Fold this sequence. Notes:
It is built from four helices and ten strands. It has about 180 residues and is an alpha+beta fold. It has a single domain, classed as tt1808, chain A (Alpha-Beta Complex). The strands form three sheets. It has a six-stranded mixed β-sheet with strand order 3-4-5-6-7-8.
Amino acid sequence: MATTEKLLTAEEFERLPDDGKLYELIDGYLREIPGLTMWQGEVEASLAMRLHAHVRDHALGCVSIGKISFIIRRNPDRVRATDIAFIRQERVPSLEARQHIMEVVPDLVVEVLSKHDTIAEVSDKIDDWLGAGMQLLWIVDPHRRTITIYQSGHDPALLGEHGTLEGDSILPGFRCSVAEIFA
């Protein structure tokens, strides 16, 4: 008799005991994800501080960092973790909801690549976020010092160190030199 492994739901995933590792839930199965290196963390912090200051100063919503978990699909459940997330003010859930895995898809997702990320893994994340309705995705590559911008219905745009990162309609008025993020 064949046995079938039970798929986890997002709610069961959230209740798992902390074993000191980071995970995503991919179609009901746990997938361990690596932590950040110091350099990745520095790049993440640099961009997050700029985003947070702009969002706070213009009362645009909330910015969060640190492998925040979002439900991006149900049945089977898929929970992705992002390095930086922004949610516009009118979509920010209650404080109670923000203390759990998020059911609201962010307006902006920032992924800081690690040397362990494969092309297939990054492509899957891009497809997942865009498929979930996320409006703007920045893939930050600290090793190449580039940022690739993804928006649904548009071709990706690659920015090098001489480029300027802009928030478009998602983060009105946000502008930052790419070189500053990697300084």
